[in-house]
Every structure is written in C-alpha cells, then in structure tokens.
UniProtKB/TrEMBL annotation:
<dbReference type="GO" id="GO:0008422">
    <property type="term" value="F:beta-glucosidase activity"/>
</dbReference>
<dbReference type="Pfam" id="PF14310">
    <property type="entry name" value="Fn3-like"/>
</dbReference>
<keyword id="KW-0326">Glycosidase</keyword>
<dbReference type="Pfam" id="PF00933">
    <property type="entry name" value="Glyco_hydro_3"/>
</dbReference>
<dbReference type="InterPro" id="IPR013783">
    <property type="entry name" value="Ig-like_fold"/>
</dbReference>
<dbReference type="Pfam" id="PF01915">
    <property type="entry name" value="Glyco_hydro_3_C"/>
</dbReference>
<dbReference type="InterPro" id="IPR002772">
    <property type="entry name" value="Glyco_hydro_3_C"/>
</dbReference>
<dbReference type="InterPro" id="IPR017853">
    <property type="entry name" value="GH"/>
</dbReference>
<keyword id="KW-0732">Signal</keyword>
<dbReference type="GO" id="GO:0009251">
    <property type="term" value="P:glucan catabolic process"/>
</dbReference>
<dbReference type="InterPro" id="IPR051915">
    <property type="entry name" value="Cellulose_Degrad_GH3"/>
</dbReference>
<feature type="region of interest" description="Disordered">
    <location>
        <begin position="1"/>
        <end position="20"/>
    </location>
</feature>
<protein>
    <recommendedName>
        <fullName>beta-glucosidase</fullName>
        <ecNumber>3.2.1.21</ecNumber>
    </recommendedName>
</protein>
<dbReference type="InterPro" id="IPR001764">
    <property type="entry name" value="Glyco_hydro_3_N"/>
</dbReference>
<dbReference type="InterPro" id="IPR026891">
    <property type="entry name" value="Fn3-like"/>
</dbReference>
<keyword id="KW-0378">Hydrolase</keyword>
<dbReference type="InterPro" id="IPR036881">
    <property type="entry name" value="Glyco_hydro_3_C_sf"/>
</dbReference>
Length: 771
C-alpha cells in the first residue's frame, strides 16, 4: 500500500480557499506534495473568484504546482456544484431551477442547458459536476425541494438521465447522480434526516430514476441521511449489493459534505471519540465509498491518516483501497485530465452568459398558469399596470433576487455575509425591468421590503425577511386608484438544505397583508394577478381566493423578466405542468399523486389538494380524439418493453400554443396495490389555433412494474398479466399484458441477512412466510 494510492482518495479544500497566484498556491500546496490529495472541491457554487479568466488561471497554477511537486505527477480533479448553469461566475446564465425543468417536460432543451453547463465547467478548468439531482420529491417542507425535478419517478429519471448525458457530452466533465438513495424523502421534511421507507418503495420508486441516470453518469454521491435506521454511508447493502452488484456500477462513489463526521454529529451512530471517528471511516470504506468529501469538520489529513492506520492495522484490506484508486484514476483518464491537465485560459470568455435562447425558452415553458378566472390573462398591454411585491427590483441590495434560488453564486443563493448592492450577479432580466421597458409611463412599481437571510441563518421558516411598511402601503393605495391591472409578486427568498426547511405552506404574513390590501383597494373590475417566485408550493387558498389569475413561476433564473412578461401580455401561451402535488395546506403533507389508494379522501374535491400533479392551464382550449395504441396486447413485456400511443390534439381556441400530452395508467389490478395514477409517457407539441396534429407518445411499460408478494417486497419486479386502463385527458384505452414478466430486472435485489448461518436460515424462513 503506498501513500500515493491512499492519497488519491482524498477530497479536500473547502469552498473558501483562494488561489489566484502562486503565493496562494504555496499555502495549500502541501496537501498535494505531502498528503497526495487527489481532488479539490468548491462547494455551494462559491469559488475564490467570480471572474472566469482569473478562475482558470488560478486553477492552472494550482494544477501546475501539483503536477510538478508530487512524485506521481497525477493531476487533481476539480469538482463543483454547477447545478442550474455554471453559476460560479459573474454574468453567468442561471438556467431555471430543477423544479422548473420538471414543469417543462422538455427533455431536449433541458439536455441543451446541461450541455452548455458542462462545456462552461470544462472551459473553467473543471472536470466534475455534482449533478444531476435524482431525488424523488415527497415533502414540500424539505429545504431542497427546488432541486428535485418531480415527484414522479419516470419523469425524474428521464430529466436526470438527459442532464447527466448533457454534462458529459464533451467527454471532459463527469456527472454525479445524487443522492443514493432515499435522500428526497426525509422524515418530516428535515434535511439529512432519516428516511422511513420500505423495500418495495425503494425498488419501485426511489431506485428507478437513479438507475436511469446511471446509464449516463460516471459518479454517484451518497445520501447524507439514514435509510430505515442505517446511515447510507455505512450501508454495504445500498452501495455494494445494490449499486455495485445489482446495477453493475463501477464508477466513483463519493460522500457528500463531511458525511463521515455526520455519523457522529448528526446521526449519533458512533461516539464523538477517536475510536468513533475511526469506526465511521472504516464503516464507509467497508460499505463501498471511494472518496471522502472533506468539509469544515474533516481536514483531508485526518481522513488520509485514519485510512492509512486502518490498512496498516489490518482492518481494511489494501486491495479494497486499490479498487477505489483504480476507479478514481480511470475517472481522471476518462475526462482527459491525464492527457491534458491544463485549461485554455481564453476559452471561458465566450461561454459566460451564453445559451440565452435555451434559457429563455425553458423559462417560458416552465411557467405554470394555476388559475385564470374569466380569462383575466393575457393583458392587452395598453393598461396602466401596478407591480408590487418583494424581490423583483434590479436595485435591491439582494443581488440575487427571488428568481434564482440556491446554488447561485453561493450555496444559499446569497453571499456569505450581508448582501451588497454592487456584488456579482448572474445575467438577468427582472420582472420590474421588463414591465418598465414595455409599458413606459403606464407602469408603476411599488416594491415591498425583502432581505435575503444572510448565510447560515434561519429566519422564522420564511426563507427571507419580508415586510410591508406604512409608507409602502400608502403608495400602493395611491397607485391602486388609477391602475387598470395589478401584478403582485409573492413567494420566498433563496435558500438551501437545512436552512431552507420550513414548517408551513402559507405565504409570509407580510405578503398575505399585501394581497388583502390590494383586494380591498382595487376596483372590482381591476384584475389582480399573482406571480409566485418560489422553489416549492407556497401559498394556500386563504391568499389565492383574492387573486384573479395565479402564475407559478418557480425560480426561472436569468430570463425571468422576459418569460413572465411574455406570458402576462400573451406573447407566450403558458404550457407548463406541475411536476408535484400542491396540497391545500401543510397538514396534508406529504401527499403525492401516485400513492396507493385510498389517498385518504381522494382528490381535490375533498379539499386535500390545491392543485394536482400535471395541472397547468392555457390561454386556449385543447381537445383529444382518435386515441389508439400501436398494439392493444403485449404478450411478453420483457420482449416488447414499449408501445406507442397516438392521439389527435386539437387547439380549439384562437391562440397558438404548445401543449404537453400526458398518458397515465389510471386503473389496473394485481397481486398488490397499484398506484392511484402513474405517468407512462409524455410529449410536447406545438399546435396553431384552429389546427390539429397527431402526436405519437412512447409508453415505457417498465413504469407498470410492481414488486409482487407479501409485505417484505423481496420478489423480482414484474409487469403483471392483466388489463391496464390508459388515459389521455378524458379518453381511455385498454392495454392487455399476456404474461407476468420483468423488464428492468431478471432477479430480485439480494436482501441482507444476519451474519451467522443459523440466523440467516431463520431470516429466510421468516421471509418465506410472506412470499
């Protein structure tokens, strides 16, 4: 066992380390020359500089020091969180957040955004991106809800798959599927909490989207939480039995930030002693971890020294370490580092702020029209318009506004400290700026108070500080008297992880007061339009009842202003569909559309759901006809895992538009409960007013797989023989499956048993009772 081999396992340097000259490099160079650290991280979308050319120069300096001052000369690999664009750099394109991407159902443009991000990261000198997120959404209280793409496993999997492929398309950047597995369903929505789930749920809902993304990604990041009482970083079953053996993944598995230490500080899995730390490291290496992401609580030297001691004491086999070294070196080879460790310092200049056409179109497609009473929208464009609400003013000291969200020039979407007026910004258009440009002197803007929470604070679970002052109220009352229409921006400030966890769905009190004031002061015939900027479902009927139209904008990024203005004035017909279920209040959380029946009191008519998964209105009307399947009978689903549906879509209104055709399985019966509904295929289509088109939708029959058998859920997944009702809107078709067969797996994932032969036999006998 050599130090070089062990050192290649080190992942170090927190996000605050600066390197712009060799003087800076010398202060951290001993991590390479003395300890053989093989990777560096700039987490949280925070780097030593926001200038692209300086970043490349500094990274090249550090790489040169590493190559020339180590015995092995192996380049380090840089990793970072470029999660909705390369948001490390001033002037970057901030693509819509992942929740917005899920609303578009536009795989082609989502992949194009990832391609630009990957190209930009590579030009910056980076070769590793810690995305895509492939965590299934279940609880809106979770502070990382905005990072998920959907609560539907198939939609999430397809989004994650094309994003991983986009990041890696130039063969210079490795994508990371995260967080394996179950991370998106933490107990009561608390980030990094334990997950209560079942083997059946893991196999049918949690694993499948990550399996799809694994087809394209070179690395995997592990769930920071625990699954059914076992920290994921200590689970040999998750990381070796499932990930390595069942899914045959041979890429790099890395921890999340400080997660060996979290076994002590967060999970209390091992004691806060030297022996406890040693057990935490050993358990992770035994489980299958290749690389430790060392953060503030874990100096790289501590992890490296502990690993060496474990090998020297015979507690970890040297061959086990060699396996990880091989994977890490192969990763560096595959992204081109061994051939060319340095980046061209001029390449980044033409990429920062690029792909505007992709970003703008995605932003428009991601907007979801929740309500539009009496055709309030679109506005004519000749009205006197009042805009009010927080976080949309270019002049605000919150330089990131509410339109970007977390992982934007900072982990929390704000700088580390008090926001400043003249700090770096993404390329951006704002709602206030766009309305002002288009309306001129017919536009009145009365901003209300908003300050983003400084780094590392939680302010009353509101994700920002909101206020409505007497002066602002008086100005709104004056403007309301002459307004022909009013637009009020609502929502939440940027946030991330545990600092974003919340215990409420309703809007902040100051925003509720603002809406009530407008409802009182505006004439009855003056429409009140709500625009919600948030990374989760924020708002309930106590506020929504006052609004004539509601546009859920999410966090659309750089081109928010253009996208929202185009929808408000009818230059773009909204087409987005919710990728999650919007509960009517937080008491019904978690509630998801594809749960087993009965879903308590099923359906929105019983008051549990504000807006269903897939909800989204349009300025025109759509009708379906001539619905058919390429075949109505599939005898062998393993031999024919897909069929196609054809449907004629007619735009019966007088406005051109895009429409998302979704095919659901809405009724089926088998040996176990079937989901209330499940998405089996979708397709976007453009249809001019008065025209109709025939759309072909590919249906993935693996989405119909269940785990048969009794409670333990240990049998292989299968599509069971029988009839399946498929629905497109109010049209239905029947698909008949002839034989019960598996598609995605030929044998079940092995389940863990006790160590001893006798205990294993007892466990098998008990499980046999449930088969």
């Amino acid at each position: 066992m050599t130090q070089v081999a062990l050192g290649e396992d080190g992942e170090g340097l927190g996000p605050n380390e600066e390197f712009t000259t060799h003087d800076d490099v010398d202060t951290i160079g001993d991590l390479f020359s003395e300890h053989y650290v093989g990777s560096i991280l700039h987490g949280g979308s925070s780097g030593p500089t926001q200038d692209g050319t300086e970043f490349v120069s500094g990274l090249n300096d550090l790489q040169e020091y590493n190559v020339e001052n180590t015995d092995h000369g192996v380049p380090f690999i840089w990793g970072g969180d470029a999660l909705h664009g390369n948001c490390f750099l001033d002037g970057c394109t901030s693509f819509p957040q992942r929740l917005n991407m899920g609303a578009t159902r536009d795989l082609e443009r989502v992949e194009a955004a990832a391609m630009h991000t990957g190209e930009s990261v590579a030009a910056m000198g980076g070769h590793w991106n810690f995305g895509p997120t492939a965590d299934l959404l279940r609880d809106m209280r979770w502070g990382r809800f905005f990072e998920g793409h959907s609560e539907d496993a198939m939609l999430l999997g397809e989004m994650a798959r094309v994003r991983a492929r986009g990041f890696e398309c130039h063969d210079q950047v490795a994508a990371t599927v995260k967080h394996f597995s179950g991370y998106g369903t933490p107990n009561i929505g608390n980030d990094r909490a334990h997950v209560r789930t079942s083997l059946r749920d893991l196999r049918t809902r949690q694993f499948p989207p990550q399996e799809r993304a694994l087809e394209e990604a070179k690395t995997v990041m592990v769930n920071s939480g625990a699954v059914n009482g076992k920290p994921a970083h200590a689970s040999e079953w998750l990381l070796t039995t499932v990930l390595r053996e069942h899914y045959e993944f041979d890429g790099v598995i890395l921890t999340d930030w400080d997660d060996f230490d979290r076994k002590i500080s967060n999970h209390e899995y091992v004691p806060d002693t030297e022996d406890g730390w040693r057990r935490a490291v050993k358990g992770g290496l035994d489980a299958g971890i290749d690389m430790c992401m060392c953060g503030a609580e874990t100096p790289p030297t501590r992890f490296i020294e502990t690993t060496i001691e474990l090998v020297e004491d015979g507690e970890i086999d040297e061959q086990r370490i060699d396996e990880s070294v091989r994977r890490i070196l192969e990763l560096k080879r595959d992204v081109g580092l061994l051939e060319e460790p340095y980046a061209d310092e001029t390449a980044i200049e033409g990429l920062v702020g690029g792909a505007q056409d992709v970003s703008e179109q995605l932003a428009k497609e991601s907007l979801v029209l929740l309500e539009n009473d009496d055709g309030t929208l679109p506005l004519e464009g000749s009205e006197e318009v009042l805009l009010t609400g927080p976080g949309v003013d270019n002049g605000t000291e919150n330089r990131f506004l509410m339109q970007h969200g977390g992982w934007t020039l900072g982990w929390q979407g704000v700088e580390e400290g008090e926001p400043t007026e003249d700090g770096p910004r993404p390329r951006q258009s704002t709602i206030a700026g766009e309305l002002s440009d288009r309306l001129g002197n017919r536009f009145t803007h009365v901003p209300t108070s908003f300050e983003a929470d400084p780094y590392g604070t939680v302010q009353d679970f509101e994700n920002g500080r909101f206020d409505l002052t007497d002066e602002q109220s008086d100005a709104i009352i004056d403007a309301a008297g002459t307004a022909d229409a009013a637009v009020v921006v609502l929502g939440e400030g940027p946030h991330n992880e545990g600092f974003g966890d919340r215990d409420r769905m309703r809007l902040p009190e100051a925003q509720q007061e603002l809406v009530a004031l407008l409802a009182d002061e505006l004439d009855d015939e003056v429409p009140l339009v709500g625009v919600i900027l948030a990374g989760s479902p924020r708002g309930t009927d106590e506020t929504f009842q006052h609004l004539d139209s509601i546009l859920f904008a999410g966090q659309p990024g750089s081109d928010t202003g253009v996208a929202v203005a185009d929808v408000l004035f009818g230059e773009y017909n909204p087409s987005g569909k919710l990728p999650f279920t919007w509960e009517s209040n937080v008491g019904f959380t978690p509630l998801f559309y594809d749960d087993y029946p009965p879903r308590q009191s099923v359906g929105a008519e019983d008051g549990m759901v504000q807006y269903e998964f897939g909800h989204g209105r349009s300025y025109t009307d759509w009708e379906y006809s001539a619905v058919s399947l390429s075949t109505n009978t599939v005898e062998s689903p393993s031999s024919k895992p897909t069929v196609t549906a054809e449907v004629t879509v007619e735009n019966t209104g007088d406005i051109d538009g895009e429409h998302i055709v979704e095919v659901y399985n809405t009724k089926s019966y088998g040996s176990v409960l079937q989901p209330h509904r499940r998405l089996v295929g979708f397709e976007r289509v453009q249809v001019d007013a008065g025209d109709s088109v025939t759309v072909t939708v590919e249906l993935d029959l693996s989405t119909l797989e269940v785990v048969p058998g009794d409670v333990p859920g240990t049998q292989p997944k299968v599509v069971e023989a029988g009839e399946y009702e498929l629905s497109v809107g109010d049209r239905t078709m029947t698909l008949t499956i002839g034989q019960t067969e598996g598609i995605s797996e030929s044998e079940a994932i092995p389940i863990p048993h006790a160590d001893s032969t006798e205990n294993s036999r007892t466990a098998r006998n008990l499980l046999a009772l449930f088969q």
